[in-house]
Design goal:
The chain folds into 2 domains: about 150 residues, Aminopeptidase, CATH 3.40.630; about 120 residues, Gcn5-related N-acetyltransferase (GNAT) (Aminopeptidase), CATH 3.40.630. It has 9 helices and 17 strands.
């Protein structure tokens, strides 16, 4: 443990950080610095890197709040301490101990972690470490996805919508017209149905799509050259995630269903297809209609846990091996 050191992220670390992310078993474009930094004016970044000598062992995308509490980055959908490939369990425990001791010495009393959804995580052994640390689960969201290669066809109700859509002159296009989708379909849909706005502003998603040209993609269905429905997908190495999807008010004709069916068939042969969460109100409620829509494509459900750890509990990791 004495050979481990922790450094707070600064711009000189960018190349090492991004190279490390590129090699992660748990790969996500959300962990690259160009994604984390797009909302740097909103969060006080406190990302950390753990080294042994000059070798980078793990990273923690993170921010600190006004109460001096640490969060696995609040601008990201998931995160935590991310380890290099084939890190042994005992070495994970050691690094968690060093991390929490480091935070405790800085008078940071709590670490909040948004757990990784199962479809991203190749190793869930951190759950045992959280148990040893007496971490509390303060929130649990439902998370829907299709395992790689699992899609055959949706349920009968969704099939009827698809058959209806196929009888119409609907064209599927891939493009960059984010403004058209945001202003004409997505924002009105979210406002009317859920009284919310998109997590990303139009300026932010356009900026991110320029940074991640091949990873952030907009698909749309058009009828008579009019946008009927759209979906923004984030393409990670092993997972494709629908970040946004929405149709116009005439949802019964299946234009959105046709689009999602097309995207699933395009990517699910070699990637997990992630629909994301249907939880609302900090995990206290479910959007039943949204969840059923995902399940109608035969999505399975898992949970995404959210933890809080007292940093003084780093001592609880001592003497765990004999």
């Amino acid at each position: 443990m004495k050979n481990l050191r922790i450094e707070r992220y600064n711009n000189t670390h960018k190349l090492a950080w991004d190279t490390f992310v590129n090699r992660l078993d748990t790969h996500s474009i959300l962990f690259y610095r160009d994604f984390i930094n797009y909302h740097q004016d909103r969060y006080d970044d406190f990302s950390l890197l753990i080294f042994k000598d000059n070798k980078l062992l793990s990273i923690l995308p993170a921010n600190i709040d006004a109460n001096n509490m640490m969060h696995s980055h609040q601008g990201l959908s998931y995160g935590g301490l991310l380890f290099s490939t084939n890190t042994s369990f005992s070495f994970r425990v050691e690094q968690f101990s060093v991390l929490l001791h480091f935070l405790h010495k800085k008078n940071i009393k709590k670490l909040f972690i948004k757990g990784l959804p199962h479809c991203y995580a190749n190793d869930s052994s951190d759950k045992l470490i959280f148990h040893w640390l007496e971490a509390k689960t303060y929130r649990t969201d439902i998370y829907s996805y299709l395992p790689k290669g699992a899609y055959e066809k949706p349920n009968r109700n969704r099939l009827r919508h698809l058959e209806n859509a196929k009888k119409q002159d609907i064209e599927i296009r891939r493009g960059k017209q984010f403004g058209e989708f945001w202003e004409k379909v997505l924002s009105p849909n979210l406002k009317d149905r859920f009284a919310v706005t998109p997590v990303h502003t139009l300026t932010e998603i356009e900026h991110l799509s320029e940074k991640f040209i091949n990873e952030i993609i907009l698909f749309g269905t058009y009828q008579n050259d009019v946008l009927r429905a759209g979906a923004v997908v984030f393409i990670h190495r092993d997972v494709v995630h629908v970040q946004y999807s929405a149709g116009d008010k005439n949802r019964a004709d299946g234009s959105l269903d046709l689009l999602i069916d097309h995207i699933i068939k395009k990517y699910n042969t070699d990637k997990v297809f992630s629909f994301g969460t249907s939880s609302e109100n900090q995990g206290k409620q479910l959007n039943g209609g949204l969840l059923y829509w995902k399940e109608s494509f035969k999505a399975c459900n898992d949970v995404q846990p959210f933890y809080v750890i007292e940093t003084e509990n780093h001592t609880l990791l001592e003497n765990r091996f004999r």
